[in-house]
């Protein structure tokens, strides 16, 4: 996927918000993003903000009791792979404390353990959420360990992620494009020294983000090469294809003309010999 970025026109450092579409189609660490400028890839830095963004909410999640593990299990389908770092529970019970086991799956057949968390509401503590390393999953299974306690009632389960923005350096007026969502992309080098130098010197300006566009279908992966911008590669490929076609036509024409010239020479020589034999026969007679 790609998006056009519009800047004010002067070089400097710019910032764009990373919406849920960009984050859900990228790596969890977002190191597969690329900012392509005129003839180069621009460096960027991911900024994590303290505010949380709601990714998905499941009201009144259906839970089942697992007698063997003495747990209340919630198996949820988020609809599509979504990123999250925090799981928050809406629990109606006044007092509780539970250990939560978190797993994820892509097909609801093979489950992978992510980690455990702790939620509680006591006279001195109120903690209804826990955090995990950045995940990206569609199917999530949460097991609340009851042990000998009575199962608690859950009104809602919410998945959140910190708001993240991307800052990049525009060395010229553009055009600039953000590429994301390509498989097999090498992680970008996390070198933010140049960006930090700009941040300390110049004001951070907002760039305008265009709608999402798909890359051409015949391009398998425009982001695997990290040393040159996608647009320049495409222009060079198109020029090479055009010149190869023109060269093939010229070469074929030259070969055909050479073939015709070779065919014409023996016929002329044969006609001369035939005319000479006719003259000699008439002289003899």
Give the biggest beta sheet.
10 strands, mixed
Report the CATH architecture of the largest domain: Sandwich
Q: How many separate helices?
A: 3
The CATH superfamily label of the largest domain reads Galactose-binding domain-like
Integer-rounded radius of gyration: 34 Å
- What is the CATH first-level class name of the largest domain? Mainly Beta
Low-confidence stretches: 217-231
Number-wise, the strands total: 15
Taking the alpha carbons of the first and last residues, their distance comes to 92 Å
Based on secondary structure, the structural category is alpha+beta
Relative helix content = 10-25%
CATH fold group of the largest domain? Jelly Rolls
Order of helices and strands: EEHEEEEEEEEEEEHEEH
Compute the number of structural domains: 3
> Given the C-alpha coordinates, what overall shape results?
elongated
Mean pLDDT metric: 81
């Amino acid at each position: 996927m790609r998006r056009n970025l519009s800047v004010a026109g002067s070089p400097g450092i710019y910032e764009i918000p990373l919406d849920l579409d960009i984050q859900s189609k990228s790596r969890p660490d977002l190191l597969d993003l690329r900012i392509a400028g005129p003839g180069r890839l621009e460096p960027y830095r991911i900024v994590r903000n303290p505010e949380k963004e709601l990714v998905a909410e499941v009201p009144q999640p259906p839970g089942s009791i697992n007698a063997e593990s003495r747990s209340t299990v919630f198996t949820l389908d988020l609809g599509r792979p979504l990123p999250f770092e925090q799981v928050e529970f809406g629990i109606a019970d006044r007092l509780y404390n539970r250990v939560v086991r978190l797993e994820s799956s892509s097909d609801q057949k093979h489950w992978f353990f992510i980690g455990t968390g702790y939620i509680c509401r006591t006279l001195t503590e109120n903690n209804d959420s826990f955090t995990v390393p950045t995940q990206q999953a569609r199917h999530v299974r949460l097991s609340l360990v009851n042990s000998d306690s009575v199962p608690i009632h859950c009104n809602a389960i919410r998945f959140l992620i910190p708001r993240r923005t991307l800052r990049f350096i525009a060395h010229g007026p553009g055009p600039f494009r953000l590429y994301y969502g390509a498989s097999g992309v090498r992680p970008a080098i996390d070198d933010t020294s140049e960006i930090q130098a700009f941040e300390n010197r110049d004001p951070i300006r907002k760039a305008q983000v265009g709608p999402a566009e798909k890359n051409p279908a015949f391009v398998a992966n425009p982001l695997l090469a990290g040393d040159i911008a996608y647009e320049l590669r495409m222009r060079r490929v198109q020029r090479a294809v055009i010149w190869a076609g023109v060269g093939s036509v010229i070469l074929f024409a030259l070969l055909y003309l050479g073939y015709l010239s070779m065919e014409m020479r023996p016929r002329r020589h044969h006609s001369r010999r035939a005319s000479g034999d006719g003259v000699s026969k008439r002289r003899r007679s």
